[in-house]
Design a protein that fits this description.
By secondary structure, the protein is an alpha/beta fold. The chain has 2 domains: about 230 residues, Rossmann fold (3-Layer(aba) Sandwich); about 250 residues, Rossmann fold, CATH 3.40.50.300. Helix content is about 30%, strand content about 25%. The protein is built from 15 helices and 22 strands. It starts with 6 loop residues before the first strand and ends in a 14-residue tail after the last strand.
Length: about 500
């Protein structure tokens, strides 16, 4: 196994995490993917990282011009000063200064001569990091797979004694599965990039390390994005790798009646599902838990899919829950999530950063519908959500997951994902009618953390805050979605201007 000291960082933090430290030094690697998947950006980050560390780096471009590479770098705010660029175009200039102008195209030169020009530049520069972009031109010059394979093998043998870390870029624009298998067998490691176009929203990109000899890397697909400043990789979340020891204690809300429903409150390291129709008080109850935690000095985070942050703060303040001071102090962070622009991997990575970098102790996802809408074509979405919630539980975070049910009255569905089995506690909200008014009911139907009330109470939310009635005994139909109160009006909470 390679030791950590013999690793070459890629310049992309997430990719280094996936590979447990970076590329093993002095080996030949394949970077493959279709056009637009991020190969050139990743290659430049790899070389610029070496420059930053004082290494000599060489970019051999057979398909793009040096000017095109500078435009890519400029778009990210990078400078290529100090990077050796070898643009294959003129044989005479290649053997001289090593910076070519377009006189002959690469396909007009025989394969052996082309390779000699490249190796002459390598001998001149003596780099520790090399990128060949791309192999398509060498494949065209070789004309048959056997000659092409021999040439790649010769390159591998040439670089072996030089301790140079080499990336071969393949744009997958020609050839088939047989060609891919040949390259994979010759290289020490293979990194594959993909670009996926959705029916709506930005294109999604993902990465997979298919092979890395001698390294215990994180297998599977990892979401990534290309933004100004370079490529970002979001390693796939594995909950079992993140267990922390934390106290088994309840999380009070500051409203005694609500705490009594859950036997004192949700336990740390559990997920509480607040489910019911829109407008029944789910977000307000979750904000009460957040406010109480902030008052205790605990860091909290709200991932807001559905509502504008400004509207959320104004609404909370009108109910007597003033969150603005906690936002200003940094105790509370509210993140607006754009459903059309984020992938499941990036969202899970943002959750990790909230927990590991900012020590978040209470986390709210508002709402599950927004999360599902952000991932319309993602496969295994339920497994990804399960893994993220398991991670939060392992880290001792109290998670409040808001799940608006389809419909306002009558029988309601939970939507495309049924997460009730994942949640440790489920708080059910319902509308009901009594005395000519639309009222709200709240009850707890599940709590793995301990005993809970099996009563149904009326929920009132106004400028004085949150209040609950005593148990409504003469109540029927709450679980069918058509609640009906048939008891004494004295059991109900009074409302302003009630007749």
């Amino acid at each position: 196994m390679q030791t950590q000291s013999s690793r070459v960082t890629t310049g992309v933090q997430g990719l280094d995490t996936v590979m447990n430290g970076g590329f093993p030094q002095g080996r030949l690697y394949l970077l493959e993917g279709p056009p637009g998947s991020g190969k050139t950006t990743l290659s430049l980050q790899f070389l610029l990282r070496g420059l930053k560390q004082g290494e000599r780096c060489l970019y051999v471009t057979l398909s793009e011009t040096a000017e095109e590479l500078r435009e890519v770098a400029s778009a990210h705010g990078w400078s290529l000063d100090g990077l050796h660029l070898f643009e294959l175009g003129s044989a005479e200039d290649a053997l001289g200064n090593g910076r070519l102008q377009s006189v002959l195209h690469s396909w007009e030169v025989e394969l052996d001569e082309t390779v000699k020009l490249i190796l002459a530049e390598v001998d001149r520069v003596r780099p520790s990091r090399v990128v060949f972009d791309s192999l398509s031109e060498l494949r065209l010059l070789a004309q048959d797979s056997l000659r092409y394979r021999r040439q790649i093998l010769a390159l591998k043998q040439y670089f072996a004694p030089q301790s140079a870390t080499v990336i071969l870029v393949d744009d997958l624009t020609s050839g088939g599965d047989e060609r891919d298998g040949q390259l994979h067998s010759l290289c020490h490691g293979v990194v594959s990039l993909e670009r996926l176009t959705l029916d709506f929203g930005a294109a999604r990109r993902r990465l997979q390390v298919q092979k890395l000899r001698g390294v215990n890397f994180i297998a599977g697909y990892h979401d990534m994005a290309i933004r100004t400043g370079g490529l970002e990789v979001f390693p796939r979340l594995i909950a079992s790798d993140h267990h922390d020891v934390f106290p088994e204690e309840v999380l009070p809300s500051g409203v005694t009646e609500i705490d009594n429903l859950l036997g004192g409150g949700p336990l740390r390291g559990t997920c509480t599902l607040l489910t019911g129709p829109a407008g029944c008080g789910k977000t307000n109850v979750s904000l009460q838990y957040v406010w109480a935690a902030c008052e205790r000095g605990e860091k909290c985070c709200i991932f807001e899919f559905d509502e504008r942050i400004g509207t959320l703060l104004i609404r909370a303040k009108a109910l007597g829950i003033d969150l603005q001071p906690h936002v200003a102090s940094g105790c509370l962070e509210i993140l607006q999530v754009d459903p059309a622009e984020i992938s499941p991997g990036e969202f899970a990575w943002n959750v990790r950063r909230a927990v590991e970098d900012r020590d978040c102790r209470v986390l709210v996802i508002d709402s599950l519908n927004g999360y599902v809408a952000a991932m319309p074509q993602e496969k295994q979405l339920m497994l990804q959500l399960h893994e993220m919630l398991s991670y939060l539980n392992q880290k001792g975070v109290a998670t409040l997951l808001i799940n608006p049910q389809a419909g306002l009255v009558g029988t309601m569905s939970t939507g495309s994902l049924n997460v009730s089995y994942i949640a440790d506690a489920v708080i059910l909200f319902r509308f009901f009618e009594a005395q000519g008014r639309i009222r709200k009911a709240i009850s707890v139907i599940k709590n793995r953390g301990g005993p809970h009330e099996d009563t149904i109470r009326e929920l009132k939310i106004n400028r004085d805050g949150i209040a609950l009635s005593g148990p409504l005994k003469e109540f029927k139909g709450i679980l069918t979605g058509t609640p009906e109160f048939v008891g004494d009006a004295a059991s109900l909470l009074s409302h302003p201007h009630a007749g």
